[in-house]
Amino acid sequence: IFGGTSALPGTHPWMAAIYIGPSDFCAGSLISSCWIVTAAHCLFRNPLKSQLRVVLGQHRFNVTGPNAQTFGVDKYIFPKHFSVFNPTLHDIALIKLKKEDGRCARKTPFVRPICLPDKTTAFPVGYCCAISGWGHLYEKGSNYSTLQEAGVRLISDDTCRDPAVYGNHITANMICAGLGSCVDACQGDSGGPLACAAGDVSFLHGIISWGEGCGRPGKPGVYTRVVNYVDWINSVVKAKARTL
Ligand code: 4AZ
Question: What is the model's pTM?
Fold first, then answer.
């Protein structure tokens, strides 16, 4: 996260750290005890499940603290329109955690799911939402960090589709946020949440997906528009529950 501040432990309890093989990393969001939402581009090289490790309740990058819960991966799934040839077009994937002692995530003050958005909860342009992650602190950074958080404002599709911003790269499945605000997601934050609160309930409005650099003037962050995939998420998560 560029331009953020260190989060207090437990303030983003849905944050998942996803270690992919020896050197790849992404974030994700816990949406139910056994399911994580992340970005498809994190997994499109099809890593072996045995190469994936998910840590919940983590505060410092690569440090498994006292509140951490660590899981292997049972499977991961892409939406049917996802294509490896253009991984940011449908940049969402679901990860099912492997049960440990018969269960997945245990709810604690440091581990709790985020709500999925519904079609009736609309967040207007200008609304301030939260991004969080362990990624680089600036564009030419090289180290991952203690969990950072920052507030970004949602911007309109028209603004984001301006030729001087991202033009026709912005589809109906993307949301832009953070124009002109000196805060942005950066490398290593991918897959993590753009969380928008309504009252004291946080919703997974977006998934950190792409953007030109980090915090560049006129180049906001681009996020997957999660509400467009909620029916798919529910069909996958519920279908699996029924076969238990
Ligand atoms: C990345 O490389 C990345 N500024 C994610 C988000 C943004 C830039 C890079 C947005 O994962």
Answer: 0.96
